[in-house]
Here is the input.
Amino acid sequence: MDYVIAFSSVLGVGLALFLLAQWRGWQPTLPTALAVGAVLRGAVWIAAASESWQPKDFRLDFPAAAMAVLHHHDPVLSGRPRGWPFLPTMAFVFAGEMKLGQMMHLPWQVVGRLAPVAADLVLIVLIGKLASERGRLRRFQYACNPLAILICAVHGQLEPEVLALGVAAFLLARSRRSAAAGMALGFSVAVGMWSVLLLPGVLAMLPDWRKRLRACCWVAAVPAAFLLTSPLTVGTPVRLLPTVVHRIIGLRSMVGNWGWTVAVTRAKLEFVTPVGRLGVVVLIIALALAGYLWRRSHPVDLTTALLITFLVVSPRVSVQYLVWPLPFLAARTTQFATPAIVMTAAWDGFGYIALGPHRTPGWMHANIWYLTSWDVIPLLIAAMPWERRRVERVGEATAPVPSVPKQAAAPEQAAAPEQAAVPEQAAVPEQAAVPEQAAVPEQAAARSRREVRR
Here is the structure.
């Protein structure tokens, strides 16, 4: 019960600050936002590290990947089946955290959350830069967001690292640095493959197809480099590289914990290959439709639509996936963004605080939690940027504040003729005035010279 009270108190304070900032329109400075975010995440971090219950993948798969790297083994091949379906990118970071823990005599429960919390604090800064308006408010709200705090400080998941690199790619693309944007998104994909969903938005930020092609090359090159160098870095046998690729991108047919598959399996986690394959087909069609509907919108709105579409239609969604659209909803908020964030935080919080540590009554089990995902999905759909589907993005994609270039562009275009017209209009009187004023003395002087000659 102390565990529940401690977590609920800290997250309740974060939620209250989130809502108060929205209501009062607070504009805290960056140091204030970072300080509040660090305090909230640090408090939850300490409480989670002192608890005997830990999320399964954080307790088993992440330290196993770190140990595999330290012993020069491939984390995909040496871990449990479906335990580490990633490139070794973050396994290197986990290995560094584990080595730090060994040097400082700290357990994995403490050092294993270091990188996610640090990345989430970086996200606070990046969201303020990405926001189209009221950036100070948006970054402060993300600093207080209970869902973001749960994912980084309780679960210690990879999502904060993926999102920090992804948002950095947006900012670099907005400044027209295509190669740097492609590299940042490539590292994001190398950490979590799902961030390929950010690629259309990043490409839309770039001004021409040449820069977009360059960015695509870097997005593909970075994860390919981690894969092809894995025989040297983690001792992957060359003949098993196709096996590693298959395990990373292969279909995982465990369904029934979210959305429409709950009705198929009657709220039970099951391996149903036909449902998984059907779900992938439906997901691809839904993503293509969302991309078409938001093709003329701002790149951040396009990304929000794609991520929420994935969450709504996907046959399987893990709890940490719900944090994916948060930075983009914060940067360009919608009418129902706040209710959706509150509901997802409550849904995730129940799983982390009560259901996961088995602190619920006997009659309340995971199946009921899976069924309640239908309470979250309608708000996620409502939080999509429906009203901004047809907003032009040409001038918005390359400037920090989308509305300013449009307002500033017209005066600049109009100013050129005015500035050019004024000298022309002024030049005529000046040129004409000088001869008129000088004409009288010159004519008088000529007459006097003629009279002298006579």
